[in-house]
């Protein structure tokens, strides 16, 4: 217990509790002003920040009680979870996140796999107390999705979810084949931080080409009758972003700019990384072949992270969103080696 007390004291210092209390008081004071609620999105973001800060202080209080009452097992578990936050010190780790899933080769199988991953991530997001909204979706021809993008709001959302970027491989008996043949499917997961308008990423209005059209997704009669969907192309880079799931054009436009800003930031990070690797003679082309995790449902059950070696036979739990151990093992592995993961 003496060691736990020391770790607790170190944690309190690292997390700067007094500063968090000051932030809570400031947000509570701001929310008392009626003008605070005029910008719904900004207010919601601030209230999410408040909830995250309050939860963190509550957990620290619970940890102190466990230690004082000699509940070592509970104290060690909660202390480990809270200590993990100190590993997240990379660029924009505290930011909200943009997560996209793209079906790979394999037709309907791959599109179904992409939707299974969407379900896994939304359940994980909800278990963390974060919020998510769908920004864009391209439905599959027969089932699933060809691609889908969601925005995730929550403390350290990007810091956690960046561990999921890469190609995910599924092996199972095909539910779309009468012979139930063994089928391998792939899906690519992209994770980007939400970049605020601070000048870190330059976006000139003259570099943007906008198109407006009727949404093809669900969203009610209003969506179908007017041109609520938007497509923006960044002319210098050729990056195109489409958003169509919101009911109003202005909301889709705002989401499109948010995603475009994140993609431009990622491009800048990748260019800098590529240049550094080329100077060191380490450059390797990024490709679909860079698998990060394998999910096997037949002839046995196993989910294995190919980067860390962590694995579990609880495939049902994983696909229900229980992926914390995969995320934490990966991030700890990199943090302990003094490595910072950028833009993954």
Structure characterization notes:
By secondary structure, this protein is of the alpha+beta class. It has helices spanning 2-15, 17-31, 40-68, 72-84, 108-127, 157-161, 221-225, 249-280, 315-319, 324-336, and strands at residues 97-103, 131-139, 145-153, 166-173, 182-193, 208-213, 229-234, 239-243, 291-296, 302-305, 311-312. The strands form 2 sheets. It has an 8-stranded mixed sheet, sandwiched between helices. Strands 6-7-8 form a 3-stranded antiparallel sheet, with helices on one face. The protein is globular.
Which regions have little confidence, pLDDT < 50, spanning 5+ residues? 218-223, 282-287, 336-344
Report mean pLDDT, rounded to a whole number. Answer: 86
Using only C-alpha atoms, the radius of gyration works out to 22 Å
How does CATH name the architecture of the largest domain? Answer: 2-Layer Sandwich
| Envelope shape | globular
Largest sheet: 8 strands, mixed
Distance between the termini: 38 Å
Supply the CATH class of the largest domain: Alpha Beta
Number of domains: 3
Helix content: 40-55%
Query: What is the string of SSEs from the N terminus onward?
Result: HHHHEHEEHEEEHEEHEEEHH
Total number of helices: 10
Structural class: alpha+beta
CATH topology of the largest domain: Alpha-Beta Plaits
Number of strands: 11
Strands side by side in the biggest sheet: 2-3-1-5-4-9-10-11
Strand content: 15-25%
Task: Produce a short descriptive summary.
The protein is α+β, with helices and mostly antiparallel strands and 344 residues long. It has 10 helices and 11 strands.
């Amino acid at each position: 217990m003496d060691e736990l007390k020391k770790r607790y004291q170190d944690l309190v210092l690292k997390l700067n509790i007094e500063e968090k209390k000051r932030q809570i008081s400031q947000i509570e004071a701001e929310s008392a002003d009626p003008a605070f609620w005029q910008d719904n999105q900004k207010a919601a973001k601030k209230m999410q920040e408040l909830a995250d800060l309050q939860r963190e202080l509550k957990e620290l209080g619970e940890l102190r009680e466990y230690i004082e009452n000699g509940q070592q097992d509970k104290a060690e578990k909660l202390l480990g979870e809270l200590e993990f936050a100190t590993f997240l010190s990379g660029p924009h780790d505290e930011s909200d996140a943009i997560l996209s899933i793209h079906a790979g080769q394999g037709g309907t199988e791959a599109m179904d796999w992409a939707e299974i991953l969407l379900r896994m991530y939304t359940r994980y997001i909800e278990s963390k107390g974060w919020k998510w909204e769908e920004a864009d979706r391209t439905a599959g021809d027969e089932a699933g999705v060809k691609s889908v993008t969601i925005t995730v709001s929550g403390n350290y959302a990007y810091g956690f979810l960046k561990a999921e970027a890469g190609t995910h491989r599924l092996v199972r008996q095909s539910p779309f084949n009468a012979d139930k043949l063994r089928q391998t499917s792939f899906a690519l997961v992209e994770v980007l931080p939400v970049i605020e308008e601070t000048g870190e990423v330059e976006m000139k209005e003259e570099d943007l080409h906008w198109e407006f059209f009727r949404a093809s997704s669900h969203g009610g009669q209003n969506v179908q009758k007017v041109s609520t969907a938007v497509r923006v192309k960044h002319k210098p880079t050729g990056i195109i972003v489409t958003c169509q799931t919101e009911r109003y054009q202005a909301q889709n436009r705002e989401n499109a700019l948010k995603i475009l800003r994140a993609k431009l930031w990622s491009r800048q990070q990748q260019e800098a990384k590529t240049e550094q690797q080329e100077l060191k003679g380490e450059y390797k082309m990024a490709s679909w072949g860079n698998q990060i995790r394998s999910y096997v449902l037949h002839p046995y059950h196993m989910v294995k992270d190919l980067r860390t070696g962590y694995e579990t036979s609880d495939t049902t739990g994983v696909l229900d969103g229980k992926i914390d151990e995969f995320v934490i093992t990966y991030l700890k592995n990199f943090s302990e080696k003094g490595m910072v993961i950028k833009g993954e």
